[in-house]
Design a protein that fits this description.
Blueprint: E1 2-12, E2 27-33, H1 36-40, H2 43-48, E3 60-70
Length: 73
């Protein structure tokens, strides 16, 4: 059975979207979710709890990803 990791990257406006990776992001938040739909919900609450919340849309933007991880057998 597969699980997913929802990833929210906070990147500075000066970083191109393609270059916005875990290594380049100002902040990276990850949470395990049950399915791909879980990757698309809940990130607003995650970011609202960070100190960077005021910068979103001004000096930074969000990029979300859904990564599949295999469960150990």
């Amino acid at each position: 059975m597969n699980a997913f990791i929802a990833v929210v990257l906070v990147c500075a406006n000066g970083i191109a979207q393609d270059s916005c990776t875990d290594a380049q992001a100002l902040e990276v938040r990850k949470v395990r979710v049950a399915n791909e739909l879980g990757c698309a919900t809940g990130w607003q609450e995650i970011i609202a709890r960070t100190e960077l919340r005021e910068e979103i849309g001004k000096t930074a933007y969000l990029k979300t990803e859904c990564r599949r991880v295999k469960e150990p057998q």
